[in-house]
């Protein structure tokens, strides 16, 4: 039995709002989803598991129609859907309207239910959110009814406000496989036995690292499942280590070089760290306007020459302050207090 597993597609999200490429990113979210349908057409898996937050918010009728049309293109694949904390069910949700083709099953209750597929010797368990938060551990004590089946749990959650669970415990209770969603970073929870799909596409510039779908087979020896990255967009956080000699131009060249050298699907959140000349303030506005730069933050601290300051301000409150701080026990806190105090007394922002 072959399957594809995706989660947290967040259809409808507009990442990087206010940036010129925001619309393009919104389209890429749909493109990636269509890519997965394309893979399913080619690979013809028996199952496609969508484990929560397919939509970024309550889906519009036209969005459900669009998704429904795509699922209709893979009639031989059973699509199993659970709603997550972003697209949680409510009375009038279009999730519950009869818009889906025959190969789609939506789990409609907030209590776990089982859907049996005797032809594949597989039973799939799942529940859908009816609330923004579910704090009780609804998966940990579930037990599959028929142990001779391949028992798969579709789960959405993994933090304290969204059904925390122990993969180990669920597997001990008799499940053969957990297809999970909610946490946007993808990875094994247990090799070949439990997978956090990660978001299909990054939806926010803090979703760093690769994103994509999982595909695998299920046989007598259990699952054999692998991650397949999609490369529409990848967010990277990069840091520049500044010192007293760093200038605006150096930062500009660094950013330009980064953009030239790295693949076009990478977008950047930049940080400047380290120390800077106290009389120099970086102007990074222009860098922030470059294509594929999400933002840039100056986190440098002024590099004071305390000896010189002491000499120049020996008789003032500043000199007195430096002298008194130097009598204190040395350490990170004292150093920070010294720096913040000097900043304030000199009138710099800190
Ligand atoms: Mn979620």
From TrEMBL:
The keyword Hydrolase applies. Residues 1-185 form the Calcineurin-like phosphoesterase domain. Keywords: Hydrolase. InterPro entries: Calcineurin-like_PHP, DNA_Repair-Maintenance_Comp, Metallo-depent_PP-like, Mre11_N. This is Metallophosphoesterase. One of its GO terms (molecular function) is hydrolase activity. It comes from Roseburia hominis (strain DSM 16839 / JCM 17582 / NCIMB 14029 / A2-183).
């Amino acid at each position: 039995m072959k399957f594809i597993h995706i989660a947290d597609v967040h259809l409808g999200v507009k990442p990087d709002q206010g940036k010129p490429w925001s619309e393009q990113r919104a389209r890429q979210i749909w493109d990636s989803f269509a890519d997965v349908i394309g893979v399913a057409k080619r690979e013809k898996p028996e199952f496609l598991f969508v484990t929560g937050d397919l939509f970024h918010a309550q889906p519009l009728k036209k969005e459900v129609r669009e998704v429904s049309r795509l699922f209709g293109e893979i009639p031989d694949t059973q699509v199993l859907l659970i709603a997550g904390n972003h697209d949680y069910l409510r009375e009038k949700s279009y999730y519950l309207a009869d818009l889906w083709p025959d190969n789609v099953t939506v789990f409609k209750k907030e209590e776990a239910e089982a859907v049996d597929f005797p032809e594949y010797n597989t039973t799939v368990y799942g529940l859908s959110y009816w609330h923004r938060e579910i704090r009780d551990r609804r998966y940990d004590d579930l037990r599959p009814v028929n142990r001779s089946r391949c028992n798969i749990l579709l789960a959405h959650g993994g933090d304290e406000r969204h059904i925390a669970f122990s993969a180990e415990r669920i597997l001990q209770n008799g499940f053969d496989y957990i297809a999970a969603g909610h946490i946007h970073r993808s990875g094994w929870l247990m090799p070949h036995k439990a997978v956090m799909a990660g978001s299909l596409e990054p939806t926010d510039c803090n979703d760093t690292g690769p994103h994509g779908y999982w595909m695998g087979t299920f046989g007598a020896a259990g699952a054999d499942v692998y991650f397949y990255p999609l490369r529409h967009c990848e967010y990277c956080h990069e840091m520049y280590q500044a010192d007293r000699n760093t200038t605006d131009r150096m930062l500009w060249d660094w950013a330009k070089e980064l953009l030239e050298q790295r693949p076009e699907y990478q977008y950047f959140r930049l940080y400047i760290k380290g120390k800077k000349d106290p009389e120099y303030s970086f102007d990074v506005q222009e860098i922030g306007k470059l294509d594929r730069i999400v933002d840039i933050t100056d986190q440098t601290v002024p590099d004071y020459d305390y000896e010189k300051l002491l000499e120049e301000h020996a008789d003032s409150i500043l000199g007195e302050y430096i002298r008194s701080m130097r009598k204190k026990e040395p350490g990170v806190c004292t150093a920070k207090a010294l720096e913040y105090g000097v900043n304030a007394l000199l009138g710099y922002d800190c």
